[in-house]
Amino acid sequence: MFTSQGPTARELAVQALSSVERGYDLLSPKFDRTPFRTPDRMLDAVEETLAGREGSFGAGLDVCCGTGAGLGMLRRLCRDRVTGVDVSAGMLAQAALAHPDGVDFVRADALALPPALGDSYDLAVSFGAFGHFLPAERPALFAGVRAALRPGGLFAFPIGAPLPPSSRVWWMLAGFDAAMRVRNAVWRLPFVMYYRTFPLSGVRADLRAAGFTVETVPLEHFGRREDGSPHWRLVLARRP
């Protein structure tokens, strides 16, 4: 799964025993050479879908931008300023190296976005970060994003279809989540990262409770399951 330039098993173990912020500070120089980086195929699918439905946007915000995988897409979609927000200084440093011009960077917890970002953006996106938030934290997360958007602004992110328990991947993810719960129960510094705590039904309800209108569109780039439902959807949550 990892290239020879990626993190070693020891480095991953150290990260796993650190806090989320410190763990990503440590991993940041090699993060883009791991499978955890959002694939370009996903970024391209989201960009194409947003461009086809919405055209262009004014200002853009990448929530939990990490090393900046989504910032290039955001810059192409947005006419005005683009901002990347992340809690990890190390990840932001890598993002700044990849995008030295045209992007502002803000170090902040996504659960407490700075008031200065309020009513400023026409598009907010996020990729691969929602496993770092417990279900009870989603209302605060979504409320903060809504406050950052201008009226009519859009919060967009991909979400995958649930995997059947007969799938090998389902058991892998269930095993990872179980191990993470044990780790957090016995280790002082919590590292929140779960793969099965972000179901569409609960997410939709929390977005609506935060004041969004919500629709989803299939990301046809990834095909459909045997029952005809898409493997991936793009959630479009709009601030009225």
What are its keywords?
240 residues; alpha/beta; Rossmann fold; 3 domains; 7-stranded mixed sheet; 8 helices; 7 strands; Methyltransf_25
Description:
The protein has three domains: 1-36, no CATH class; 41-160 and 199-238, Rossmann fold; 163-196. It is built from eight helices and seven strands. The longest helix has 19 residues, at 168-186. The model has no long low-confidence stretch (mean pLDDT 92). A seven-stranded mixed beta sheet has the order 3-2-1-4-5-7-6, sandwiched between helices. It is an alpha/beta fold and 240 residues long. Helix 6 links the parallel strand 4 (121-125) and strand 5.
Gyration radius (Cα, Å) is: 17 Å
Main beta sheet strand tally, sense and closure: 7 strands, mixed
Give the uncertain stretches in residue-range form. none
Order of helices and strands: HHHEHEHEEHEHHEE
Work out the number of β strands: 7
Could you say what the CATH topology of the largest domain is called? Rossmann fold
Structural class estimated from helices and strands: alpha/beta
CATH H-level name of the largest domain... which superfamily?
Vaccinia Virus protein VP39
Task: Tell me which CATH architecture of the largest domain applies here.
Answer: 3-Layer(aba) Sandwich
**Highest-level CATH class of the largest domain:** Alpha Beta
Tally of contiguous helical segments? 8
* Mean pLDDT figure: 92
What coarse outline follows from CA principal-axis ratios?
A: globular
Percent range of helical residues: 25-40%
- Tally the structural domains: 3
Distance between the termini: 42 Å
Quaternary structure type: single chain
Strand portion:
15-25%
Strand order of the largest sheet: 3-2-1-4-5-7-6
